[in-house]
Amino acid sequence: MAARHPKFPWITLVLGAIVFAILVGLGTWQVGRLQWKEGLLAEIEARTHAAPVSFAELEKAWNDQKDVDYRTVSVSGRLLNDKERHFFATYDGYSGYFVYTPLLLDDGRAVFINRGFVPYDRKDPAKRREGQIEGTVTVTGLARNPLATKPSSLVPDNDLKANIYYWKDLATMAAQSGIDSARLVPFFIDADKTPNPGGAPVGGVTIIDLPNSHLQYAVTWYGLAATLVVILAIWLRRRYKLQPESRMEAGKTSSSDLTSH
Fold it and tell me: What average pLDDT does the chain have?
Protein backbone atom coordinates (compact mmCIF):
# COMPACT_ATOMS: atom_id res chain seq x y z
CA MET A 1 0.00 0.00 0.00
CA ALA A 2 1.37 3.41 -0.94
CA ALA A 3 2.20 5.84 1.91
CA ARG A 4 -0.27 8.67 2.32
CA HIS A 5 1.06 12.19 1.83
CA PRO A 6 0.28 14.43 4.83
CA LYS A 7 -1.75 17.53 4.08
CA PHE A 8 0.07 20.82 3.83
CA PRO A 9 -0.21 22.56 7.30
CA TRP A 10 -2.08 25.63 6.13
CA ILE A 11 -3.79 26.26 9.48
CA THR A 12 -0.50 26.17 11.37
CA LEU A 13 1.16 28.54 8.92
CA VAL A 14 -1.79 30.95 8.93
CA LEU A 15 -1.80 31.05 12.72
CA GLY A 16 1.97 31.50 12.68
CA ALA A 17 1.65 34.38 10.22
CA ILE A 18 -0.95 36.06 12.44
CA VAL A 19 1.25 35.75 15.52
CA PHE A 20 4.25 36.98 13.51
CA ALA A 21 2.30 40.05 12.34
CA ILE A 22 1.22 40.79 15.93
CA LEU A 23 4.80 40.55 17.22
CA VAL A 24 6.15 42.78 14.45
CA GLY A 25 3.32 45.24 15.08
CA LEU A 26 4.16 45.40 18.78
CA GLY A 27 7.82 45.98 17.96
CA THR A 28 6.97 48.75 15.50
CA TRP A 29 4.66 50.36 18.07
CA GLN A 30 7.50 50.37 20.58
CA VAL A 31 9.77 52.04 18.01
CA GLY A 32 7.15 54.77 17.66
CA ARG A 33 6.97 55.10 21.45
CA LEU A 34 10.76 55.32 21.56
CA GLN A 35 10.76 58.25 19.14
CA TRP A 36 8.00 59.95 21.15
CA LYS A 37 9.82 59.43 24.47
CA GLU A 38 13.14 60.70 23.10
CA GLY A 39 11.37 63.81 21.80
CA LEU A 40 9.69 64.33 25.19
CA LEU A 41 12.98 63.97 27.06
CA ALA A 42 14.68 66.39 24.69
CA GLU A 43 11.88 68.92 25.22
CA ILE A 44 12.10 68.58 29.01
CA GLU A 45 15.87 69.01 28.84
CA ALA A 46 15.44 72.19 26.80
CA ARG A 47 12.74 73.56 29.12
CA THR A 48 14.67 72.95 32.34
CA HIS A 49 17.81 74.63 31.00
CA ALA A 50 16.11 77.60 29.35
CA ALA A 51 16.28 81.09 30.78
CA PRO A 52 13.37 81.84 33.14
CA VAL A 53 10.32 83.32 31.45
CA SER A 54 8.04 85.88 33.05
CA PHE A 55 4.93 84.75 34.87
CA ALA A 56 2.82 86.41 32.18
CA GLU A 57 4.55 84.34 29.47
CA LEU A 58 4.00 81.17 31.49
CA GLU A 59 0.31 81.91 31.86
CA LYS A 60 0.03 82.51 28.13
CA ALA A 61 1.62 79.10 27.50
CA TRP A 62 -0.89 77.54 29.88
CA ASN A 63 -3.84 79.25 28.22
CA ASP A 64 -2.61 78.18 24.77
CA GLN A 65 -1.48 74.61 25.49
CA LYS A 66 -2.63 73.65 29.01
CA ASP A 67 0.92 72.44 29.50
CA VAL A 68 3.68 74.25 31.38
CA ASP A 69 5.48 71.25 32.85
CA TYR A 70 9.18 71.89 33.59
CA ARG A 71 9.20 75.41 32.11
CA THR A 72 11.55 77.70 34.02
CA VAL A 73 9.87 80.79 35.45
CA SER A 74 10.43 83.65 37.88
CA VAL A 75 7.57 85.14 39.88
CA SER A 76 7.33 87.66 42.69
CA GLY A 77 4.82 87.97 45.51
CA ARG A 78 4.24 87.49 49.20
CA LEU A 79 4.31 84.06 50.84
CA LEU A 80 1.20 83.20 52.85
CA ASN A 81 3.16 81.14 55.36
CA ASP A 82 0.21 80.48 57.63
CA LYS A 83 -1.55 78.61 54.80
CA GLU A 84 1.17 76.14 53.81
CA ARG A 85 0.21 72.56 52.93
CA HIS A 86 2.39 69.49 53.47
CA PHE A 87 2.91 66.79 50.85
CA PHE A 88 4.35 63.47 52.07
CA ALA A 89 7.61 62.80 50.24
CA THR A 90 11.12 61.40 50.40
CA TYR A 91 14.21 63.30 49.46
CA ASP A 92 17.88 62.36 49.51
CA GLY A 93 17.07 59.16 51.40
CA TYR A 94 14.95 60.82 54.10
CA SER A 95 11.20 60.88 54.64
CA GLY A 96 9.34 64.06 55.37
CA TYR A 97 7.29 66.64 53.51
CA PHE A 98 7.37 69.07 50.62
CA VAL A 99 6.08 72.44 51.80
CA TYR A 100 3.51 73.99 49.45
CA THR A 101 2.90 77.65 50.26
CA PRO A 102 0.57 80.04 48.39
CA LEU A 103 2.36 83.01 46.87
CA LEU A 104 0.10 86.07 46.75
CA LEU A 105 0.58 88.00 43.51
CA ASP A 106 0.14 91.73 43.03
CA ASP A 107 -3.23 91.21 41.32
CA GLY A 108 -4.65 89.33 44.30
CA ARG A 109 -4.33 85.84 42.82
CA ALA A 110 -2.28 83.05 44.39
CA VAL A 111 0.00 80.34 43.01
CA PHE A 112 1.16 77.40 45.12
CA ILE A 113 4.94 77.17 45.47
CA ASN A 114 6.66 73.91 46.36
CA ARG A 115 9.31 75.54 48.52
CA GLY A 116 11.13 72.28 49.15
CA PHE A 117 11.71 69.49 51.63
CA VAL A 118 11.57 69.41 55.42
CA PRO A 119 12.09 66.28 57.57
CA TYR A 120 9.42 64.95 59.90
CA ASP A 121 10.70 66.81 62.92
CA ARG A 122 10.48 70.17 61.12
CA LYS A 123 6.96 69.87 59.74
CA ASP A 124 5.83 72.42 62.32
CA PRO A 125 6.60 75.92 60.93
CA ALA A 126 7.47 77.04 64.45
CA LYS A 127 10.61 74.89 64.23
CA ARG A 128 11.85 76.73 61.14
CA ARG A 129 10.83 80.32 61.72
CA GLU A 130 13.81 81.72 59.81
CA GLY A 131 12.51 80.12 56.62
CA GLN A 132 9.10 81.75 56.96
CA ILE A 133 10.09 84.75 54.86
CA GLU A 134 8.04 87.92 55.21
CA GLY A 135 7.56 90.61 52.58
CA THR A 136 8.00 90.40 48.83
CA VAL A 137 10.09 87.51 47.50
CA THR A 138 11.06 86.38 44.02
CA VAL A 139 10.87 82.66 43.35
CA THR A 140 12.59 81.00 40.40
CA GLY A 141 11.76 77.40 39.60
CA LEU A 142 10.01 74.91 37.38
CA ALA A 143 6.29 75.08 36.62
CA ARG A 144 4.35 71.85 37.11
CA ASN A 145 1.03 70.81 35.64
CA PRO A 146 -1.79 70.00 38.07
CA LEU A 147 -3.22 66.51 38.47
CA ALA A 148 -6.78 65.98 37.30
CA THR A 149 -7.43 63.03 39.63
CA LYS A 150 -5.67 60.80 42.12
CA PRO A 151 -2.97 59.01 40.10
CA SER A 152 -3.75 55.53 41.43
CA SER A 153 -6.15 53.70 43.72
CA LEU A 154 -3.05 52.55 45.62
CA VAL A 155 -2.30 56.14 46.66
CA PRO A 156 -3.85 56.91 50.08
CA ASP A 157 -6.48 59.57 50.43
CA ASN A 158 -5.23 62.95 51.58
CA ASP A 159 -5.40 63.42 55.36
CA LEU A 160 -6.86 66.90 55.49
CA LYS A 161 -7.22 66.93 59.26
CA ALA A 162 -3.51 66.32 59.74
CA ASN A 163 -2.59 68.51 56.74
CA ILE A 164 -0.82 65.64 54.99
CA TYR A 165 -1.28 65.24 51.25
CA TYR A 166 -0.42 62.03 49.38
CA TRP A 167 -1.33 63.44 45.99
CA LYS A 168 -1.33 67.05 44.84
CA ASP A 169 -5.02 67.96 44.80
CA LEU A 170 -4.67 71.63 43.92
CA ALA A 171 -8.35 72.50 44.35
CA THR A 172 -8.49 70.97 47.83
CA MET A 173 -5.19 72.57 48.85
CA ALA A 174 -6.59 75.95 47.85
CA ALA A 175 -9.93 75.39 49.57
CA GLN A 176 -8.23 74.28 52.78
CA SER A 177 -6.05 77.38 52.63
CA GLY A 178 -9.07 79.63 52.18
CA ILE A 179 -8.14 80.67 48.64
CA ASP A 180 -11.01 81.44 46.28
CA SER A 181 -10.91 79.12 43.26
CA ALA A 182 -11.46 82.17 41.02
CA ARG A 183 -8.18 83.63 42.29
CA LEU A 184 -6.19 80.39 42.09
CA VAL A 185 -3.48 79.98 39.45
CA PRO A 186 -4.14 76.52 37.90
CA PHE A 187 -0.59 75.11 38.18
CA PHE A 188 2.26 74.76 40.67
CA ILE A 189 5.82 76.03 40.76
CA ASP A 190 8.72 74.02 42.24
CA ALA A 191 11.27 76.43 43.72
CA ASP A 192 14.91 75.98 42.70
CA LYS A 193 17.86 75.31 44.99
CA THR A 194 18.21 78.92 46.15
CA PRO A 195 18.84 78.49 49.92
CA ASN A 196 16.15 79.55 52.36
CA PRO A 197 17.08 81.29 55.63
CA GLY A 198 17.78 78.71 58.30
CA GLY A 199 18.31 76.00 55.68
CA ALA A 200 14.68 74.88 55.44
CA PRO A 201 12.81 74.11 53.32
CA VAL A 202 15.45 72.66 50.99
CA GLY A 203 14.52 73.67 47.43
CA GLY A 204 15.28 72.13 44.07
CA VAL A 205 13.43 68.90 44.80
CA THR A 206 11.90 68.37 41.36
CA ILE A 207 12.54 64.79 40.24
CA ILE A 208 12.64 64.16 36.51
CA ASP A 209 12.67 60.41 36.08
CA LEU A 210 10.97 59.21 32.91
CA PRO A 211 11.98 55.60 32.15
CA ASN A 212 12.82 54.91 28.53
CA SER A 213 12.86 51.15 27.91
CA HIS A 214 11.08 51.20 24.56
CA LEU A 215 14.17 50.14 22.58
CA GLN A 216 14.53 47.09 24.80
CA TYR A 217 10.86 46.24 24.34
CA ALA A 218 11.11 46.68 20.55
CA VAL A 219 14.13 44.38 20.36
CA THR A 220 12.25 41.81 22.47
CA TRP A 221 9.18 41.80 20.21
CA TYR A 222 11.24 41.69 17.01
CA GLY A 223 13.37 38.94 18.51
CA LEU A 224 10.29 36.85 19.31
CA ALA A 225 9.05 37.34 15.75
CA ALA A 226 12.38 36.15 14.35
CA THR A 227 12.39 33.18 16.72
CA LEU A 228 8.91 32.20 15.57
CA VAL A 229 10.05 32.20 11.94
CA VAL A 230 13.05 30.02 12.77
CA ILE A 231 10.90 27.54 14.73
CA LEU A 232 8.37 27.24 11.91
CA ALA A 233 11.12 26.80 9.35
CA ILE A 234 12.79 24.04 11.37
CA TRP A 235 9.43 22.34 11.95
CA LEU A 236 8.57 22.38 8.23
CA ARG A 237 12.03 21.16 7.27
CA ARG A 238 11.85 18.22 9.64
CA ARG A 239 8.28 17.44 8.60
CA TYR A 240 9.13 17.11 4.91
CA LYS A 241 12.54 15.56 5.50
CA LEU A 242 10.88 12.70 7.33
CA GLN A 243 8.32 12.05 4.58
CA PRO A 244 10.73 10.29 2.12
CA GLU A 245 12.10 8.19 4.97
CA SER A 246 8.55 7.24 5.95
CA ARG A 247 7.77 6.24 2.37
CA MET A 248 10.96 4.19 2.18
CA GLU A 249 10.08 2.40 5.42
CA ALA A 250 6.59 1.77 4.09
CA GLY A 251 8.06 0.37 0.85
CA LYS A 252 10.40 -1.93 2.75
CA THR A 253 7.52 -3.19 4.84
CA SER A 254 5.46 -3.94 1.70
CA SER A 255 8.36 -5.79 0.09
CA SER A 256 8.86 -7.89 3.20
CA ASP A 257 5.19 -8.80 3.25
CA LEU A 258 5.30 -9.93 -0.42
CA THR A 259 8.43 -12.01 0.18
CA SER A 260 6.87 -13.73 3.15
CA HIS A 261 3.84 -14.59 1.07
Answer: 88
